[in-house]
UniProtKB/TrEMBL annotation:
UniProt keyword annotations, A-Z: Bacterial flagellum, Cell projection, Cilium, Flagellum
Domain of life: Bacteria
Entry annotated with the keyword Transmembrane helix: no
Name of this chain's protein: Flagellar basal body rod protein FlgB
Stated family: Belongs to the flagella basal body rod proteins family.
GO cellular component terms, semicolon-separated: bacterial-type flagellum basal body, rod
Species name: Pullulanibacillus camelliae
GO biological process, one term: bacterial-type flagellum-dependent swarming motility
InterPro entries reported in the protein's UniProt record: Flag_bb_rod_N (IPR001444), FlgB (IPR006300)
Subunit structure and binding partners: The basal body constitutes a major portion of the flagellar organelle and consists of a number of rings mounted on a central rod.
All residue ranges annotated as the Flagellar basal body rod protein N-terminal domain in the record: 13-39
């Protein structure tokens, strides 16, 4: 019997972790929208995970996968758009939060389907 390959699940878990970190950073930005001299933070990723997932759109109505990696860095964005030195743009943060929630839910749905497949393969019945 060959060993079970959980590499796709591990990659999806990394994507969920990335999305969770992004959510936390965006939430921190939103919480500090009125804090004087607060500078927006952003999570920066490479493209390793996206290439590892080799995600392809099968329908033009599907969302495109974004480039991401487990090698994340949180960086402070420059610039000031408010008189108090704060550069957080609430509209931008809310847009990024919505996009991140869509990505997280997509990854969670895919990993759930993967677990359901393994449940069937391992004799757990139909889910």
């Amino acid at each position: 019997m060959s060993s079970i390959d959980f590499s796709s699940i591990n990659k999806l878990q990394t994507a969920l972790d990335r999305s969770s970190l992004t959510h936390n950073v965006i939430a921190q930005n939103i919480a500090n929208v009125d804090t004087p001299n607060y500078k927006e933070k952003k999570v920066v990723f490479g493209d390793e995970l996206a290439s590892a997932l080799q995600a392809k759109r099968t329908d033009p109505r599907h969302f495109e996968f974004t480039n991401s990696s487990s090698g994340a860095r949180v960086v402070t964005e420059g610039g000031s758009i408010q008189n108090n030195g704060n550069n957080v743009d609430m509209d931008k943060q809310m847009t990024e939060l919505a996009q991140n929630q869509i990505e997280y839910q997509s990854y969670a749905d895919v990993i759930s389907r993967e677990f359901n497949k393994w449940n069937i393969v391992l004799g757990g019945g139909n889910s």
